[in-house]
Design a protein that fits this description.
Layout (H helix, E strand, L loop, with lengths): L3 E6 L3 H10 L5 E7 L3 H10 L3 E3 L2 H8 L3 E4 L6 H10 L3 E4 L7 H14 L3 E3 L7 H11 L6 E9 L22 H16 L5 E8 L9 E7 L5 E7 L9 E8 L2 E6 L2 E6 L11 E6 H4 L10 H15 L9 H22 L2
Parallel strand pairs: 1-2, 1-4, 2-3, 4-5, 5-6, 7-10
Antiparallel strand pairs: 7-11, 8-9, 9-10, 11-12, 12-13, 13-14
Helix pairs in contact: 4-5, 5-10, 7-10
Bound molecules: nicotinamide-adenine-dinucleotide (NAD).
Length: about 350
């Protein structure tokens, strides 16, 4: 079988992370990189056997990859995805997919219709603990969901920010909602479903001048379930980005993060191996091995899944553009709710 030719667009933090992971795949050849930064390109040229381009249009014209990984600032994703579609190329794009709500569902439709693999980097969907929590909810182990809270903390912006980078501009896809809360929102969409209503949204600046550093919101569902999100990217009590979720149901409750979960069962559940009361499981109890480890198994699992979907055409992406569009819709509802109702 010939190798899948991959191009990487955007060679910053995530571009390099994904390079190192996908480069370990035996059926993949990374053939090209596009990034306007002269510094990045000269380093790539010096150390890696790839073609380099300042303009991503040239990457498509001169290299014709089978698939691309898009790892640029979020506001550029939309135009790059359009060009990717015109070139009939499979694509993995980093979250938050696109900042353009109007294009989100349209792009999802185009790629699906054309049979092109489309995946968004909502990496929690590939974390072994969250996958297990999803399985337990589907098996009705904690019964009907009543309440939840989804939280994410990091120390990304831990001092006054000069406002010059893309992370300090909402138009470019920066701010705590796009950068961090997108993960907490997608985790809710994955485990509970897309909310029917978004209320009580609040945005706080801590260090940033132009964007929010913290966000909270309440999600309401027609079936009576409700829950909150709270995300803070200026919390120095956390060294690494941490997602936490708690779900309360009629038969018990679950508390989970990327590394372990605790489940409280109202009754013994011999089928799942849980006793009445608290049960603790660590990621080492539930993980699937990956051939190469960077940052967490889930980062490798998501890219290997992308390659799997390209190789096995009947396989559907576990985190497609339509999942990305769902998260995008909730993000916009939070911004709208805050503008309309959130200010005192
Ligand atoms: N899944 C995760 O855990 C996670 C973590 C961090 C960032 N991200 C996402 O990854 C994406 C990139 O974030 P990052 O931290 O790598 O940012 P970064 O600033 O480190 O890198 C962005 C790169 O894109 C390049 N770039 C800018 N314009 C370009 C263009 N027109 N064509 C090609 N390249 C261009 C920049 O020169 C830079 O090298 C964002 O969407 C971000 O939200 C995801």
């Amino acid at each position: 079988m010939s190798k899948i030719k991959i191009g990487i667009i955007g060679a910053g933090r995530m571009g390099i992370t994904h390079y190192s992971i996908i480069n370990s795949h035996p059926q993949v050849e990374i053939s090209s990189i596009a990034d306007p930064s002269g510094l990045m390109l000269s380093m790539m040229k010096k150390y890696l056997p790839v073609k380099t381009f300042k303009d991503y249009h040239e990457l498509f014209k001169k290299d014709s990859p089978d698939a691309v990984l898009v790892c640029t600032p979020p506001n550029l994703h939309n135009d790059i995805l359009k060009t990717t579609f015109e070139n009939k190329t499979h694509v993995f794009v980093e979250k938050p997919y696109t900042t353009d709500l109007n294009q989100a569902a349209h792009l999802a439709h185009l790629f699906e219709k054309e049979g092109l693999v489309n995946q968004v980097g909502y990496v929690n969907r590939f974390n072994d603990v969250f996958k297990e929590v999803n399985r337990l909810i589907k098996k009705d182990v904690i019964g009907k969901l009543i309440r939840f809270k989804s939280e994410m903390f990091s120390c990304t912006i831990a001092e006054p920010d000069d406002g010059s980078g893309w992370r300090s501009s909402r138009e470019k896809g920066g701010g705590a909602v796009y950068e961090m809360a997108a993960h907490a929102i997608d985790l809710v969409n994955y485990l509970v479903g897309k909310p029917d209503k978004v209320i009580g949204s609040n945005l706080n600046s801590i260090y940033s001048k132009k964007v929010e550093d913290a966000v909270s919101s309440t999600f309401v569902y027609k079936n009576g379930c409700s829950g909150t999100i709270y995300v803070n990217w200026s919390d120095t009590a956390y060294r690494k980005p941490t997602n936490k979720i708690e779900l309360f149901g009629t038969k018990g409750k679950i508390q989970a993060d990327q590394h372990s979960y605790k489940i409280y069962c109202n009754e013994d559940d011999p089928e799942q191996g849980f006793r009445k009361g608290w049960n603790t499981r660590y990621i080492t109890d539930v993980f699937e091995n990956v051939p190469f480890y960077v940052r967490g198994n889930e980062f490798t699992s998501q890219l290997y899944h992308f390659i799997d979907c390209i190789q096995t055409s009947e396989k559907k992406s576990l985190c497609s553009f339509s999942h990305g569009a769902d998260a995008q819709e909730v993000i916009h509802r939070i911004f709208n709710d805050y503008e309309l109702n959130g200010k005192a």
